[in-house]
Protein backbone atom coordinates (compact mmCIF):
# COMPACT_ATOMS: atom_id res chain seq x y z
CA UNK A 1 0.00 0.00 0.00
CA UNK A 2 1.53 3.22 -1.19
CA UNK A 3 2.52 5.66 1.52
CA UNK A 4 2.32 3.17 4.36
CA UNK A 5 5.33 1.83 6.21
CA UNK A 6 5.98 -1.58 7.67
CA UNK A 7 5.39 -0.10 11.10
CA UNK A 8 1.83 0.76 10.03
CA UNK A 9 1.23 -2.87 9.15
CA UNK A 10 2.35 -4.45 12.42
CA UNK A 11 0.11 -7.20 13.78
CA UNK A 12 -2.27 -6.25 16.54
CA UNK A 13 -0.94 -7.49 19.89
CA UNK A 14 -2.65 -10.65 21.06
CA UNK A 15 -2.43 -12.25 24.47
CA UNK A 16 -0.59 -15.52 24.83
CA UNK A 17 -3.13 -17.37 26.93
CA UNK A 18 -2.00 -20.04 29.33
CA UNK A 19 -2.98 -22.80 31.73
CA UNK A 20 -1.13 -24.55 34.51
CA UNK A 21 -0.88 -28.31 34.91
CA UNK A 22 -0.90 -30.32 38.14
CA UNK A 23 2.87 -29.93 38.56
CA UNK A 24 2.71 -26.15 38.22
CA UNK A 25 4.18 -26.10 34.71
CA UNK A 26 2.85 -23.22 32.64
CA UNK A 27 1.47 -24.27 29.25
CA UNK A 28 0.92 -21.28 26.98
CA UNK A 29 -1.04 -21.56 23.75
CA UNK A 30 0.14 -19.21 21.04
CA UNK A 31 -2.68 -17.13 19.54
CA UNK A 32 -1.73 -15.14 16.45
CA UNK A 33 -3.04 -14.50 12.97
CA UNK A 34 0.19 -15.87 11.54
CA UNK A 35 -0.34 -19.18 13.39
CA UNK A 36 -4.10 -19.43 13.02
CA UNK A 37 -3.90 -21.22 9.69
CA UNK A 38 -1.33 -23.77 10.82
CA UNK A 39 -2.64 -27.31 10.97
CA UNK A 40 -0.31 -28.23 13.84
CA UNK A 41 -1.18 -26.67 17.22
CA UNK A 42 1.79 -25.29 19.11
CA UNK A 43 2.08 -25.25 22.87
CA UNK A 44 4.63 -23.35 24.89
CA UNK A 45 5.67 -25.35 27.93
CA UNK A 46 7.27 -23.32 30.70
CA UNK A 47 9.14 -24.69 33.65
CA UNK A 48 11.49 -27.64 34.02
CA UNK A 49 9.35 -30.47 32.58
CA UNK A 50 5.68 -31.33 32.95
CA UNK A 51 6.67 -34.68 34.46
CA UNK A 52 9.06 -33.34 37.08
CA UNK A 53 7.91 -34.18 40.59
CA UNK A 54 10.28 -31.61 42.10
CA UNK A 55 9.45 -28.40 40.26
CA UNK A 56 12.02 -25.72 40.86
CA UNK A 57 10.62 -22.21 40.70
CA UNK A 58 13.34 -20.29 38.93
CA UNK A 59 13.18 -16.57 38.42
CA UNK A 60 13.75 -15.28 34.94
CA UNK A 61 17.09 -13.55 34.87
CA UNK A 62 15.77 -10.51 33.02
CA UNK A 63 14.12 -7.77 35.09
CA UNK A 64 15.00 -9.02 38.58
CA UNK A 65 18.76 -9.15 38.03
CA UNK A 66 18.84 -5.80 36.24
CA UNK A 67 16.36 -3.96 38.43
CA UNK A 68 13.82 -3.90 35.62
CA UNK A 69 16.01 -2.00 33.17
CA UNK A 70 16.94 -3.36 29.76
CA UNK A 71 20.62 -3.49 28.86
CA UNK A 72 21.52 -1.87 25.54
CA UNK A 73 23.51 -3.77 22.90
CA UNK A 74 27.26 -3.49 23.41
CA UNK A 75 29.37 -1.64 20.92
CA UNK A 76 32.02 -3.54 19.03
CA UNK A 77 34.77 -1.96 21.10
CA UNK A 78 33.45 -2.98 24.49
CA UNK A 79 33.98 -6.74 24.26
CA UNK A 80 35.62 -9.16 21.82
CA UNK A 81 36.90 -6.11 19.96
CA UNK A 82 39.48 -8.22 18.17
CA UNK A 83 36.92 -10.77 17.01
CA UNK A 84 34.40 -10.87 14.21
CA UNK A 85 31.19 -10.88 16.24
CA UNK A 86 30.23 -8.70 19.16
CA UNK A 87 27.78 -9.88 21.84
CA UNK A 88 24.23 -8.62 22.04
CA UNK A 89 23.47 -8.54 25.77
CA UNK A 90 26.00 -9.32 28.47
CA UNK A 91 24.79 -10.44 31.87
CA UNK A 92 28.25 -9.98 33.36
CA UNK A 93 30.19 -12.00 35.87
CA UNK A 94 27.68 -11.69 38.72
CA UNK A 95 25.72 -14.77 37.67
CA UNK A 96 26.97 -17.69 39.70
CA UNK A 97 25.73 -20.53 37.51
CA UNK A 98 28.08 -20.29 34.55
CA UNK A 99 30.38 -23.05 33.28
CA UNK A 100 33.58 -23.48 35.24
CA UNK A 101 36.20 -21.02 34.02
CA UNK A 102 33.66 -18.60 32.48
CA UNK A 103 33.67 -14.96 33.53
CA UNK A 104 31.26 -13.29 31.08
CA UNK A 105 27.99 -14.62 29.67
CA UNK A 106 26.22 -13.24 26.60
CA UNK A 107 22.76 -13.84 25.09
CA UNK A 108 22.12 -13.24 21.39
CA UNK A 109 20.19 -14.02 18.22
CA UNK A 110 22.35 -15.25 15.37
CA UNK A 111 20.11 -16.00 12.38
CA UNK A 112 16.66 -15.05 11.10
CA UNK A 113 14.77 -16.31 8.07
CA UNK A 114 11.22 -15.65 6.85
CA UNK A 115 8.98 -16.69 3.97
CA UNK A 116 6.30 -14.43 2.54
CA UNK A 117 4.53 -13.05 -0.53
CA UNK A 118 6.86 -12.55 -3.48
CA UNK A 119 5.11 -9.45 -4.81
CA UNK A 120 6.82 -7.52 -2.01
CA UNK A 121 10.40 -8.37 -3.02
CA UNK A 122 11.33 -4.89 -4.22
CA UNK A 123 9.47 -3.20 -1.39
CA UNK A 124 11.27 -5.39 1.16
CA UNK A 125 14.63 -4.70 -0.45
CA UNK A 126 14.09 -0.95 -0.11
CA UNK A 127 12.82 -1.37 3.44
CA UNK A 128 15.85 -3.43 4.51
CA UNK A 129 18.21 -0.93 2.88
CA UNK A 130 16.68 1.90 4.92
CA UNK A 131 16.20 0.04 8.20
CA UNK A 132 19.58 -1.75 8.28
CA UNK A 133 21.46 1.19 6.74
CA UNK A 134 22.49 -0.79 3.66
CA UNK A 135 23.80 0.89 0.54
CA UNK A 136 21.32 0.22 -2.28
CA UNK A 137 24.16 0.20 -4.81
CA UNK A 138 25.80 -2.77 -3.09
CA UNK A 139 22.94 -5.21 -3.68
CA UNK A 140 23.96 -7.95 -6.10
CA UNK A 141 21.70 -10.06 -8.32
CA UNK A 142 22.40 -13.80 -8.71
CA UNK A 143 20.91 -16.64 -10.75
CA UNK A 144 19.97 -19.18 -9.55
CA UNK A 145 18.98 -18.46 -5.96
CA UNK A 146 18.90 -20.70 -2.89
CA UNK A 147 16.23 -23.27 -1.98
CA UNK A 148 14.97 -23.89 -5.54
CA UNK A 149 14.39 -20.18 -6.22
CA UNK A 150 15.47 -18.88 -9.61
CA UNK A 151 16.95 -15.58 -8.39
CA UNK A 152 18.58 -13.99 -5.38
CA UNK A 153 19.50 -10.54 -4.15
CA UNK A 154 22.44 -10.50 -1.73
CA UNK A 155 24.12 -7.74 0.23
CA UNK A 156 27.72 -7.94 1.47
CA UNK A 157 26.57 -7.28 5.04
CA UNK A 158 24.83 -10.67 5.17
CA UNK A 159 21.29 -10.23 3.79
CA UNK A 160 19.69 -12.53 1.21
CA UNK A 161 16.35 -12.27 -0.63
CA UNK A 162 15.48 -15.30 -2.77
CA UNK A 163 12.57 -15.30 -5.19
CA UNK A 164 11.30 -16.53 -8.55
CA UNK A 165 9.85 -14.02 -10.98
CA UNK A 166 6.53 -14.71 -12.71
CA UNK A 167 8.23 -15.23 -16.07
CA UNK A 168 9.66 -18.50 -14.73
CA UNK A 169 6.13 -19.75 -14.12
CA UNK A 170 6.94 -21.78 -11.01
CA UNK A 171 7.33 -21.28 -7.29
CA UNK A 172 6.69 -17.56 -7.72
CA UNK A 173 4.14 -17.00 -4.97
CA UNK A 174 6.63 -16.82 -2.12
CA UNK A 175 10.04 -15.36 -1.43
CA UNK A 176 12.53 -15.97 1.39
CA UNK A 177 14.38 -13.30 3.38
CA UNK A 178 17.43 -14.10 5.46
CA UNK A 179 19.47 -12.09 7.96
CA UNK A 180 22.73 -13.84 8.80
CA UNK A 181 24.64 -13.44 12.04
CA UNK A 182 26.81 -10.73 10.49
CA UNK A 183 23.76 -8.64 9.54
CA UNK A 184 22.12 -9.00 12.97
CA UNK A 185 25.26 -8.14 14.91
CA UNK A 186 25.98 -5.16 12.70
CA UNK A 187 22.47 -3.74 13.02
CA UNK A 188 21.89 -4.75 16.64
CA UNK A 189 19.35 -7.19 17.99
CA UNK A 190 16.69 -4.54 18.69
CA UNK A 191 16.73 -3.41 15.06
CA UNK A 192 16.56 -7.04 13.90
CA UNK A 193 13.56 -7.60 16.19
CA UNK A 194 11.92 -4.55 14.67
CA UNK A 195 12.41 -6.10 11.22
CA UNK A 196 10.84 -9.32 12.51
CA UNK A 197 7.78 -7.47 13.77
CA UNK A 198 7.39 -5.41 10.62
CA UNK A 199 7.69 -8.44 8.33
CA UNK A 200 5.04 -10.26 10.39
CA UNK A 201 2.74 -7.33 9.66
CA UNK A 202 3.32 -7.92 5.95
CA UNK A 203 2.35 -11.57 6.08
CA UNK A 204 5.82 -13.10 6.45
CA UNK A 205 6.29 -16.15 8.69
CA UNK A 206 9.58 -17.15 10.30
CA UNK A 207 11.13 -20.40 9.06
CA UNK A 208 14.39 -20.30 11.04
CA UNK A 209 15.58 -18.54 14.20
CA UNK A 210 18.90 -19.16 15.97
CA UNK A 211 19.57 -18.12 19.57
CA UNK A 212 22.86 -18.53 21.39
CA UNK A 213 24.61 -18.18 24.72
CA UNK A 214 28.31 -17.27 24.78
CA UNK A 215 30.83 -17.61 27.58
CA UNK A 216 34.21 -15.92 27.78
CA UNK A 217 36.90 -16.98 30.22
CA UNK A 218 39.81 -19.35 30.57
CA UNK A 219 39.81 -23.11 29.95
CA UNK A 220 36.00 -23.43 29.79
CA UNK A 221 35.14 -27.15 29.71
CA UNK A 222 31.48 -27.04 28.70
CA UNK A 223 31.93 -28.78 25.33
CA UNK A 224 33.86 -31.60 27.02
CA UNK A 225 31.06 -31.95 29.59
CA UNK A 226 28.38 -32.13 26.90
CA UNK A 227 30.48 -34.61 24.89
CA UNK A 228 30.99 -36.82 27.94
CA UNK A 229 27.30 -36.73 28.86
CA UNK A 230 26.36 -37.84 25.34
CA UNK A 231 28.91 -40.66 25.47
CA UNK A 232 27.31 -41.94 28.67
CA UNK A 233 23.80 -41.88 27.23
CA UNK A 234 22.61 -38.89 29.26
CA UNK A 235 21.22 -36.88 26.32
CA UNK A 236 17.43 -36.42 26.55
CA UNK A 237 14.75 -34.92 24.31
CA UNK A 238 16.90 -35.31 21.18
CA UNK A 239 17.65 -38.63 19.52
CA UNK A 240 21.01 -38.15 17.85
CA UNK A 241 24.32 -36.42 18.42
CA UNK A 242 27.71 -36.18 16.73
CA UNK A 243 31.08 -34.59 17.30
CA UNK A 244 33.50 -32.92 14.93
CA UNK A 245 37.10 -32.14 15.84
CA UNK A 246 39.80 -30.71 13.64
CA UNK A 247 43.48 -30.12 14.20
CA UNK A 248 46.13 -28.00 12.57
CA UNK A 249 49.84 -27.72 13.30
CA UNK A 250 49.46 -30.39 16.02
CA UNK A 251 46.91 -28.24 17.92
CA UNK A 252 43.13 -28.33 18.00
CA UNK A 253 41.65 -25.91 15.48
CA UNK A 254 37.96 -26.75 15.91
CA UNK A 255 35.68 -28.59 18.33
CA UNK A 256 31.88 -28.93 17.90
CA UNK A 257 29.24 -31.20 19.42
CA UNK A 258 25.94 -31.37 17.50
CA UNK A 259 22.73 -32.40 19.27
CA UNK A 260 19.92 -33.36 16.91
CA UNK A 261 20.12 -33.56 13.13
CA UNK A 262 20.23 -31.02 10.33
CA UNK A 263 16.90 -32.38 9.03
CA UNK A 264 15.05 -31.83 12.31
CA UNK A 265 13.37 -28.68 13.59
CA UNK A 266 15.67 -28.51 16.62
CA UNK A 267 19.48 -28.53 16.39
CA UNK A 268 22.05 -27.56 19.02
CA UNK A 269 25.67 -26.69 18.34
CA UNK A 270 28.16 -26.48 21.22
CA UNK A 271 31.41 -25.24 19.73
CA UNK A 272 34.58 -23.28 20.34
CA UNK A 273 33.78 -19.90 18.82
CA UNK A 274 37.24 -18.54 19.54
CA UNK A 275 38.90 -21.26 17.48
CA UNK A 276 36.37 -20.78 14.70
CA UNK A 277 37.27 -17.09 14.55
CA UNK A 278 40.97 -17.87 14.27
CA UNK A 279 42.01 -17.68 17.91
CA UNK A 280 44.94 -19.86 18.83
CA UNK A 281 43.79 -20.94 22.29
CA UNK A 282 40.83 -23.19 23.02
CA UNK A 283 38.33 -22.73 25.82
CA UNK A 284 38.33 -18.91 25.91
CA UNK A 285 35.14 -18.30 23.93
CA UNK A 286 32.47 -21.04 23.89
CA UNK A 287 29.13 -20.78 22.13
CA UNK A 288 26.01 -22.93 22.63
CA UNK A 289 23.62 -22.29 19.78
CA UNK A 290 20.05 -23.48 19.20
CA UNK A 291 18.61 -23.54 15.68
CA UNK A 292 14.80 -23.65 15.47
CA UNK A 293 12.90 -24.17 12.24
CA UNK A 294 9.32 -24.39 10.97
CA UNK A 295 6.59 -24.08 13.61
CA UNK A 296 8.96 -23.59 16.52
CA UNK A 297 10.75 -20.71 14.82
CA UNK A 298 7.38 -19.12 14.05
CA UNK A 299 6.35 -19.42 17.68
CA UNK A 300 9.54 -17.73 18.90
CA UNK A 301 9.29 -14.99 16.26
CA UNK A 302 5.71 -14.22 17.27
CA UNK A 303 6.54 -14.08 20.98
CA UNK A 304 9.42 -11.72 20.26
CA UNK A 305 7.20 -9.56 18.03
CA UNK A 306 4.70 -9.05 20.84
CA UNK A 307 7.15 -7.86 23.49
CA UNK A 308 6.54 -4.31 24.69
CA UNK A 309 8.69 -1.47 26.03
CA UNK A 310 11.44 -1.67 23.47
CA UNK A 311 11.49 -5.49 23.49
CA UNK A 312 12.39 -5.57 27.17
CA UNK A 313 12.85 -9.16 28.27
CA UNK A 314 13.80 -10.54 24.86
CA UNK A 315 17.02 -11.99 26.28
CA UNK A 316 15.11 -13.86 29.01
CA UNK A 317 12.78 -15.30 26.37
CA UNK A 318 15.69 -16.27 24.10
CA UNK A 319 17.64 -17.92 26.92
CA UNK A 320 14.52 -19.73 28.15
CA UNK A 321 13.91 -21.21 24.71
CA UNK A 322 17.60 -22.09 24.46
CA UNK A 323 17.42 -24.00 27.76
CA UNK A 324 14.10 -25.72 27.11
CA UNK A 325 14.70 -28.04 24.16
CA UNK A 326 17.40 -30.35 25.52
CA UNK A 327 18.20 -32.04 28.81
CA UNK A 328 20.91 -34.24 30.29
CA UNK A 329 19.92 -36.91 32.82
CA UNK A 330 21.73 -39.83 34.38
CA UNK A 331 20.27 -43.34 34.46
CA UNK A 332 18.69 -45.71 31.98
CA UNK A 333 16.70 -44.47 29.01
CA UNK A 334 14.04 -47.02 29.96
CA UNK A 335 13.23 -44.88 33.01
CA UNK A 336 10.94 -41.89 32.87
CA UNK A 337 12.98 -38.77 32.33
CA UNK A 338 11.35 -37.06 35.34
CA UNK A 339 12.65 -39.82 37.63
CA UNK A 340 16.26 -39.59 36.44
CA UNK A 341 18.81 -37.35 38.15
CA UNK A 342 19.77 -34.29 36.14
CA UNK A 343 23.46 -34.01 35.33
CA UNK A 344 25.21 -31.58 37.67
CA UNK A 345 26.78 -29.42 34.97
CA UNK A 346 23.43 -28.88 33.22
CA UNK A 347 21.46 -28.30 36.42
CA UNK A 348 23.98 -25.67 37.49
CA UNK A 349 23.86 -24.02 34.07
CA UNK A 350 20.09 -23.55 33.74
CA UNK A 351 18.76 -23.49 37.31
CA UNK A 352 17.99 -19.74 37.30
CA UNK A 353 16.53 -19.77 33.78
CA UNK A 354 12.79 -20.13 33.20
CA UNK A 355 12.90 -22.83 30.54
CA UNK A 356 10.51 -22.66 27.59
CA UNK A 357 9.68 -25.56 25.31
CA UNK A 358 7.60 -25.35 22.15
CA UNK A 359 5.61 -28.53 21.69
CA UNK A 360 4.19 -29.30 18.27
CA UNK A 361 1.34 -31.77 17.83
CA UNK A 362 1.73 -33.34 14.41
CA UNK A 363 -1.35 -33.88 12.30
CA UNK A 364 -1.93 -36.98 10.25
CA UNK A 365 -0.64 -36.71 6.69
CA UNK A 366 -3.49 -36.99 4.21
CA UNK A 367 -3.43 -36.92 0.43
CA UNK A 368 -3.81 -33.15 0.19
CA UNK A 369 -0.87 -32.47 2.49
CA UNK A 370 1.27 -35.07 0.75
CA UNK A 371 0.41 -33.71 -2.69
CA UNK A 372 1.21 -30.16 -1.54
CA UNK A 373 4.60 -31.34 -0.30
CA UNK A 374 5.32 -32.95 -3.68
CA UNK A 375 4.27 -29.79 -5.51
CA UNK A 376 6.32 -27.55 -3.27
CA UNK A 377 9.50 -29.58 -2.70
CA UNK A 378 9.84 -32.26 -5.40
CA UNK A 379 8.21 -31.21 -8.66
CA UNK A 380 9.90 -27.77 -8.91
CA UNK A 381 13.29 -29.51 -8.87
CA UNK A 382 12.20 -32.02 -11.50
CA UNK A 383 10.80 -29.22 -13.64
CA UNK A 384 14.12 -27.38 -13.44
CA UNK A 385 16.01 -30.51 -14.52
CA UNK A 386 13.50 -31.12 -17.32
CA UNK A 387 13.95 -27.60 -18.60
CA UNK A 388 17.72 -28.03 -18.83
CA UNK A 389 17.84 -31.58 -20.25
CA UNK A 390 14.90 -31.68 -22.68
CA UNK A 391 13.58 -34.75 -20.83
CA UNK A 392 9.91 -34.78 -20.00
CA UNK A 393 8.70 -35.46 -16.47
CA UNK A 394 7.60 -39.01 -17.27
CA UNK A 395 11.04 -39.95 -18.58
CA UNK A 396 12.74 -38.53 -15.52
CA UNK A 397 10.28 -40.24 -13.21
CA UNK A 398 10.90 -43.60 -14.89
CA UNK A 399 14.64 -43.07 -14.59
CA UNK A 400 14.58 -42.06 -10.93
CA UNK A 401 12.15 -44.78 -9.86
CA UNK A 402 13.54 -47.61 -12.01
CA UNK A 403 15.02 -49.57 -9.07
CA UNK A 404 12.50 -48.56 -6.41
CA UNK A 405 10.48 -51.42 -4.95
CA UNK A 406 6.84 -50.84 -3.94
CA UNK A 407 5.93 -50.81 -0.24
CA UNK A 408 5.47 -54.32 1.10
CA UNK A 409 2.59 -53.09 3.27
CA UNK A 410 1.08 -50.76 0.68
CA UNK A 411 -2.38 -52.33 0.99
CA UNK A 412 -2.54 -51.29 4.65
CA UNK A 413 -1.58 -47.65 4.02
CA UNK A 414 -4.63 -45.32 3.96
CA UNK A 415 -2.68 -42.78 1.89
CA UNK A 416 -2.22 -45.33 -0.92
CA UNK A 417 -5.96 -45.93 -1.12
CA UNK A 418 -6.68 -42.20 -1.01
CA UNK A 419 -4.53 -41.78 -4.12
CA UNK A 420 -6.13 -44.77 -5.84
CA UNK A 421 -9.62 -43.48 -5.10
CA UNK A 422 -8.68 -39.99 -6.32
CA UNK A 423 -7.27 -41.29 -9.62
CA UNK A 424 -10.25 -43.58 -10.13
CA UNK A 425 -12.79 -40.85 -9.36
CA UNK A 426 -11.19 -38.53 -11.89
CA UNK A 427 -11.17 -41.29 -14.51
CA UNK A 428 -7.37 -41.12 -14.80
CA UNK A 429 -6.96 -44.86 -14.18
CA UNK A 430 -9.20 -47.89 -13.97
CA UNK A 431 -8.45 -50.27 -11.14
CA UNK A 432 -10.32 -53.24 -9.68
CA UNK A 433 -12.90 -52.17 -7.15
CA UNK A 434 -11.98 -54.19 -4.09
CA UNK A 435 -11.71 -53.36 -0.43
CA UNK A 436 -8.56 -53.74 1.59
CA UNK A 437 -10.49 -56.04 3.94
CA UNK A 438 -10.98 -58.49 1.06
CA UNK A 439 -7.23 -59.14 0.82
CA UNK A 440 -6.25 -62.66 1.85
CA UNK A 441 -4.62 -62.38 5.26
CA UNK A 442 -3.56 -66.05 5.47
CA UNK A 443 -4.82 -68.74 7.82
CA UNK A 444 -3.04 -67.35 10.89
CA UNK A 445 -0.97 -70.49 11.55
CA UNK A 446 2.28 -68.47 11.43
Write a brief structural summary:
The protein has helices at 33-36, 63-66, 121-131, 181-187, 189-201, 222-231, 273-276, 294-305, 314-324, 344-350, 367-389, 393-400, 414-425; strands at 17-20, 26-29, 42-46, 89-90, 102-117, 140-142, 151-155, 159-163, 174-179, 205-217, 235-236, 241-248, 251-259, 266-272, 285-293, 327-328, 356-360.
Supply database-style keywords.
446 residues; 4-stranded antiparallel β-sheet; globular; disordered N terminus; disordered C terminus
Provide an overview of this structure:
With 446 residues, the protein is an alpha+beta fold. It folds into 3 domains: 7-360, no CATH class; 366-404, no CATH class; 405-446, no CATH class. The chain contains 13 helices and 17 strands. It has helices at 33-36, 63-66, 121-131, 181-187, 189-201, 222-231, 273-276, 294-305, 314-324, 344-350, 367-389, 393-400, 414-425, and strands at 17-20, 26-29, 42-46, 89-90, 102-117, 140-142, 151-155, 159-163, 174-179, 205-217, 235-236, 241-248, 251-259, 266-272, 285-293, 327-328, 356-360. The strands form 3 sheets. Strands 4, 5, 6, 7, 8, 9, 10, 12, 13, 14 and 15 form an 11-stranded antiparallel sheet that branches. Strands 1-2-3-17 form a 4-stranded antiparallel sheet. Strands 11-16 form a two-stranded antiparallel ribbon.
Amino acid sequence: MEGQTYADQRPNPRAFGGVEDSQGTKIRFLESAALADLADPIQTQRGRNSGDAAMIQRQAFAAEERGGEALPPLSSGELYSQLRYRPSVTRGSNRKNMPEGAEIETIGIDWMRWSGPSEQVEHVRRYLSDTLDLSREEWQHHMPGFWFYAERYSHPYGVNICFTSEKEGRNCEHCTIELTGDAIQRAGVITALEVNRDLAGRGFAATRFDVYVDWEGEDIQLIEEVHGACNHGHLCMLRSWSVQESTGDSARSGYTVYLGSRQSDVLYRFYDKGLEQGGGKSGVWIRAELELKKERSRALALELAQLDNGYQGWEALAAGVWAGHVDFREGSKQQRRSSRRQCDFWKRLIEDIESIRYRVTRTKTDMDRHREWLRRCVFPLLQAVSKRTDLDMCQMWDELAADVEPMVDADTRPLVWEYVQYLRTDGIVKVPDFNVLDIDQGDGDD
